[in-house]
Design goal:
By secondary structure, the protein is α/β, with parallel strands linked by helices. The chain is about 50% helix and about 15% strand. The longest helix has 18 residues.
Length: about 250
């Protein structure tokens, strides 16, 4: 089983890769893949690590700016694409789980040929899109998260599970509020009807047909610190790789 963690910088991808991997290691064989050329230190020991080819730090020493170095690093990785693909496929054949940690700058993975081609050539990878509670300020923010997960499906060609990470930072009332917005689409649409802004109107229209275009995937709630949601994520991964049913 291949799980790919995707999210914006600071969403907790690396910490979750490590913690969820340790959870899985109690019962399964787990391999780790680091695709972040900008990572300086990792809590896990990667079995495949793109930093062995190039790092953002090395490129900045050559005179590239931070953003340019990230793009250039993936340009250079393309020369070894087949090598990395083969190594990950080999891990998939030898382990129960392969966990892929993607760049902090999500666009480097989503908009470069390396990331898209990799997902297209892996056997049924499951993508976990991590969002941070900090971005959830208004009702239409929840609609944005739902639609962005759907866009990941479209861009990467993988089944994408939307997840709210860092739930350990929330009190019980805050968590229940987030769950109500994410788990009850009718409630979200009712709240959006009350928003007279252009953003609210757009979000209402988008959410009104979301059920028609979105695959049946349930939202999950995770914490790398407490392990909350790990059993749910493991169950979703199992359901994805077998014929037990959909991901509702």
């Amino acid at each position: 089983m291949i799980l790919t963690f995707v999210g914006t910088a600071g969403s907790g991808k690396t910490a979750l890769t490590y913690s969820f991997g340790k959870y899985l290691e109690e019962s399964y064989s787990v391999a780790y893949v680091n695709l972040d050329t900008g990572a300086k230190k990792l809590p896990y020991r990667p079995d495949v690590d793109v930093r062995e080819t190039v790092t953002v730090e090395e490129l900045m020493a050559e005179g590239y700016g931070p953003n340019g170095a990230i793009v250039e690093s993936y340009d250079r990785l393309m020369a070894k694409f087949d090598e990395y693909l083969g190594a990950i496929l080999e891990l998939e054949g030898e382990h129960d789980y392969v966990l892929i940690d993607t760049p902090g700058q999500m666009e480097a993975f989503l908009f470069h040929e390396f990331g898209v081609r990799l997902m297209e050539n892996l056997p049924s990878p499951l993508t976990v899109y991590l969002s941070d509670p900090e971005i959830l300020r208004r009702p239409h923010d929840y609609c944005f998260v739902r639609f962005f997960a759907l866009l990941l499906d479209l861009r990467l060609g993988t089944t994408t599970v939307p997840a709210l990470n860092k739930v350990d930072l929330l009190d019980e009332e805050e968590l229940e509020m987030h769950k109500r917005y994410f788990d009850d689409m009718e409630y979200l649409k009712t709240r959006l009807r009350l928003d007279t802004s252009m953003q609210g109107l757009l979000a209402f229209r988008l959410c009104s047909f979301l059920s028609e275009v979105s695959p049946p995937v349930r939202f999950i709630y995770l914490s790398a610190k407490t392990g909350e949601g790990f059993e749910d994520l493991n169950t979703l991964a199992y359901e994805h790789y077998c014929t037990c049913g959909d991901l509702t």
